[in-house]
Amino acid sequence: RTGVSGTRTPDRTRVQGEDTLEPTRYFIKGRTYPAADPGLQDALAQVYGSPERPRCLCVSGGIEMYIARHAEYIVKRMPDTGHRHHPTCPSFEPEPGMSGLGELVGEAIIEHAPDQVEVRTDFAMSRLPGKAVPRGEAVIDPAEVHAPRKRMSLRALLHFLFERAGFNRWYPAMEGRRNQGVLHKYLSEAARGVMVKGASLDERLYVPEPFRVELKDKIGERRRKKLALLLSPEDAVQYKMAIIVGEYNGSEATAFGRRIVVKHMPDVPLYIETKAWERVERSYSAILQARDADVPKKPRVMMAALVYAKREYVYQVDTVSMMLTTDQWIPLDGLYELPLIEALQSEQRSFMKPLKYDAKSAAAFPNVLLLDCEVGPVPLHVVSAVADAKEKALKVRALAIDPPHWIWNTDTEVPSFPARGRSRLWGQLGKQPRQAPTLAPPP
Which of 175, 398, 418, 440 measures 20 to 30 Å from 88, CA to CA? Predict the structure, then answer.
């Protein structure tokens, strides 16, 4: 799963216990293969490198797919075809304008091939010696003027990884199957094939693996090997930097600045300057306070930290971004969405959470897209009773442009959800499945 067209579409056995309404099936050389079929790899090998493409049979007639070769053959979605897949198919993707992704695709997120995506960030991956070059100053009679290009913030990159890894999706079979090991695996895989500043993101990303005291030494050895690039010198670069994505687990004042503890990294804290941490607390006060909210299932605070080694094996934070999630790592725009997400989970619904990325406000986007309705995806909108006047006005304006079928005002009970549709029915290529659902274009 991914957040941009054309990237990896894992099969059912590789997606966090994902349970689409029917197993994913591919049509190859006149035969249909379930994604978990042991013979699928041989079938993919026969057509790999040829003009013939497998077809995903989530809808009548099928949709062409792409084959990538890593340790094994992997079927991926072709560019700009995500919206053509059935909403319950792992390859489905709503139109980019349904989330903050739409503002970045084509400028900050550039797909060079189904197997290679370049992301352009507004932060560097190294610290240069000397003072920063001033930006934005007007020059009289310049030789030329460049139109600014969009760049992704660290928050947008965090959202990008979570969407590529599928953590903004929920299927009933995921219940009880998400844990730190799953987070480590799928976020790490999501970074493969992504280029940042000319380097592969998976080389610069570290997601803590599940910590076990008896394996502490081996875990530490693997972590040091992964972050060894921070110690390697490079011309004109004072410090190389890496990105650590993990769950914030508290902080404390020290003589060297603030000490940040990342869950599953209890033996290796991160350090940040005291004044910088004070800005973090002001900027993310609502998110940090949400950890102590009076709710049965405490939310998590996920953190992306751009770090460098100011001293050997001591990791200093240069930039940090935080994101609120449910206890199952589903991203949240705020605590007001939590009752909606938990109600959908308790009713065993399949859904997707659109992410903000770098949009100034998420009010224009659906809070949730319901994927398992007869016609879909169905947008669900939430109007928070405690939102400020500006946010409420933006949401009301968005609802007036395209009135949705489902709205919840948080000072009332959660309304009944749209009815669940019939199971996705599969047919052979070229044959119309009986009672196949008719799909409307995304709202």
Answer: 398
- In 10 A of CB 296, how many CB atoms? 7
Report the candidate in 62, 72, 103, 81 with the shortest Cα–Cα distance to residue 7: 81
pTM here? 0.86
- Is the N-terminal amide bond of 377 cis, ω within 30° of 0? yes
Beta bridge partners of 89: none
pLDDT above 90 for 190? yes
With contact defined as beta carbons under 8 Å apart, do 227 and 292 qualify?
A: no
Quick check: helix, strand or coil at residue 324?
Answer: strand
Distance in angstroms between the alpha carbons of the first and the last residue of the chain: 22
d(CA 160, CA 150): 15
pLDDT digits (tens, 9 = 90+) for 125-183: 987 655 444 444 555 677 776 667 789 999 999 999 999 999 999 999 899 999 999 99
Q: Which two tokens stand for residue 119?
A: 């992301």
pLDDT over 60 at 279, yes or no: yes
* pLDDT at 287 (0 to 100): 97
| Backbone φ, ψ for residue 371 (5° rounding) | -100, -15
Residue among 292, 324, 49 nearest 167 (CA): 324
- Higher-pLDDT residue of 398 and 160 is 160
**SS3 category, 320:** strand
Provide the CA 210 distance to its chain's centre, in angstroms.
20
Upper half-sphere CA count for residue 157 (Cβ side, 13 Å): 32
The 10s digit of each residue's pLDDT in 281-315 is 999 999 999 999 999 999 999 999 999 998 899 99
CB within 8 A of 164, min separation 6: which ones? 1, 2, 3, 4, 7, 8, 190, 194
- Pick from 359, 331, 2: nearest CA to 152: 359
C-beta of residue 410 within 8 angstroms of C-beta of residue 391: no
The encoded tokens of residue 396 equal 């009301």
